[in-house]
Design a protein that fits this description.
Elements (H helix, E strand, L loop, with lengths): L4 E4 L4 E4 L7 E6 L10 H19 L3 E6 L14 H9 L3 H18 L15 H13 L3 E4 L2 E4 L1 H7 L11 H11 L11 E6 L15 E3 L3 H11 L3 E7 L3 H16 L4 E7 L2 E3 L2 E2 L10 H6 L11 H9 L7 E3 L1 H23 L9 H18 L4 H19 L10 H18 L12 H18 L3 H13 L2 E6 L2 E6 L1
Parallel strand pairs: 3-4, 3-9, 9-10, 11-13
Antiparallel strand pairs: 1-2, 5-6, 6-7, 7-8, 11-12, 14-15
The protein binds adenosine monophosphate and zinc ion (ZN).
Zinc ion (ZN) binds next to loops.
Length: about 500
């Protein structure tokens, strides 16, 4: 029995985590819609779930982590499908759009040092499962067919099952009157009904045969079908950004209950939004900063570039359920904090002390490293756990520069601290040392390459300077020419 508790959106309280099968965890997280580049808001959510995944592994659970790729486009307000719109704008085959942005997403996840999910199913690879689920919902009487499309009957469902609205906290009567005013009802019986199968118009490219029409599955269906396929009708954790709570997750629950008469998820976890200038970062609003812009500093919103690990550290410094506003000041503070933490670890690893019996300082150090685990057990509280490590670093620096007596701490205490710090900072927080401008051999080599490139440029030998730049690019090394000379970093 582990001591983990976290906030469950379903019960609206911090619940003790008890997995369905002891020692095993099934976790599903809604992945990206791959019709353009991931933005930092998406990265915040995926980094947050990466930390949750890593912490479950740290506790010794065997985790099956499923994160999907949404490659069947959702319809936009203008009635166009996102992926088809991308394909039209970029003159690509829809599957080329999907592949291009899936690759980009994977690259970004690697740069942020996130672990790969155990299974990464694609919606287009699970059309049969989705059709089967639509059929089950129809058979159970919770859907109806209209002109080749199939709609989920929210009115009948909420009359018979006391579950619709429970996750998002929407009061059904209000929901029904609200949707009546706001939305065009079209061919649906009721405005709050939603499509689980859509008949495609003749010009629609991504479509599949089904018993009802040539068409495509509704937006919410893929997650119901794929989570059931890989994690079973009932599983432990389902996550996503809190913007997905309604309608996406609410409708997922409805579909699962409609198909299998089983509420699928025990614990719903929702991350809060990344804001820019106080507004949700969103692709559709154009209010975004790409990770690349953040790394290079080429954006009107920031003064300079920040490395991927500084950004990861910045994400960790706020709790996943709080909003996080991106701005220069906070990023600069994160940069300092990240360096202090990494240097603190190095100092700790090589520190020699001479205490012979366990005293107060030993107890203080052990309390800090154990306290960080308690913080993580309390709703994955990364900022509080991080603060404990900063206290540890202060003690370590004090010991190192003689402000704290070296004979007040035992070497074995420091050994424990090194091991715990490695486990938390590198394995759970997923931070890495960045090999840039640290004066080490790689840095020396890079300074040489930068000098050679500069010489080539001075001699107008563009062939050589381009070759150097392109090769570094292939090696994922970024060089940046700035006021104070050229610097390098890993992309
Ligand atoms: P999408 O590609 O829009 O389907 O989003 C993929 C994931 O990123 C979902 O879990 C969203 O909830 C999440 N997400 C989208 N925008 C933001 C944001 N500004 N901050 C945090 N997470 C976000
Ligand atoms: Zn989903």
């Amino acid at each position: 029995m582990k001591n983990l508790k976290f906030y469950n959106s379903l019960t609206r309280s911090k619940d003790t985590f008890t997995p369905i099968k002891e020692g095993y965890v099934g976790m599903y997280v809604c992945g990206p819609t791959v019709y353009n580049d991931v933005h930092l808001g998406n990265c915040r959510t995926f980094v947050s779930f990466d930390i949750i995944y890593r912490y479950l592994l740290y506790l010794g659970y065997k985790v099956r982590y499923v994160r999907n790729i949404t490659d069947v486009g959702h319809l936009l307000d203008d009635g166009e499908d996102r992926i088809l719109k991308g394909a039209r704008l970029e003159q690509l085959e829809p599957m080329e759009v999907v592949q291009k942005y899936t690759n980009g997403f994977h690259k970004m996840m690697t740069i942020f040092n996130t672990l790969k999910p155990s299974i990464e199913p694609r919606a287009t690879g699970h059309i049969i499962e989705q059709i089967e689920m639509v059929q089950k919902i129809l058979d159970n009487g919770y859907a109806y067919v209209k002109n080749g499309s199939v709609y989920f009957d929210t009115v009948k469902f909420s009359k018979e099952k006391d579950i619709y609205g429970k996750l998002s906290g929407r009061v059904i009567d209000e929901l029904f009157s609200e949707t009546r005013e706001l939305k065009n009802q079209g061919e649906k019986n009721h405005p709050s009904d939603f499509a689980i199968w859509m008949k495609a118009s003749p010009e629609h490219i991504m479509k599949w045969n089904s018993p009802w029409s040539e068409g495509f599955p509704g937006w919410h269906l893929e997650c119901s079908a794929m989570s059931t396929k890989y994690l079973g009708e009932k599983f432990d954790i389902h996550g996503g950004g809190n913007d997905l709570k309604f309608p996406h997750h609410e409708n997922e629950v409805a579909q699962n209950v409609g198909a299998c008469n089983c509420a699928p998820v025990n614990y719903w976890l929702h991350t809060n939004m990344l804001l820019m200038n106080g507004k949700k970062m969103s692709k559709s609003d154009g209010n975004t900063i790409s990770p690349e812009q953040l790394f290079s500093g080429e954006s009107e919103h920031i003064q300079k570039g920040y490395s991927p690990m500084v950004v990861r550290f910045f994400i960790l410094q706020s709790h996943y359920r709080s909003t996080l506003d991106i701005n220069d000041e906070a990023l600069l503070a994160a940069e300092k904090g990240y360096k202090r933490l990494m240097e603190g670890y190095k100092t700790l690893s090589s520190l020699e002390v001479s205490g012979s019996t366990a005293g107060e300082k030993d107890a203080e150090i052990i309390n800090l490293v154990e306290g960080a685990v308690e913080d993580m057990n309390d709703d994955f509280n990364t900022p509080r756990a991080m603060a404990k490590y900063f206290e540890l670093v202060s003690i370590v620096n004090g010991l190192n520069d003689g402000k704290i007596d070296k004979s007040s701490v035992m070497q074995s205490t420091l050994e424990t601290a090194v091991e715990k710090m490695r486990g938390m900072v590198f394995d759970v927080f997923g931070l890495m040392e960045e090999m840039a401008a640290d004066g080490g051999p790689m840095d020396g080599l890079m300074q040489l390459v930068i000098e050679l490139r500069q010489e080539a440029r001075n001699n107008k030998d563009w062939g050589t300077s381009d070759k150097i730049r392109d090769t570094l690019n292939e090696l994922e090394i970024l060089i940046k020419d700035g006021k104070d000379g050229t610097t390098w970093s890993l992309k």
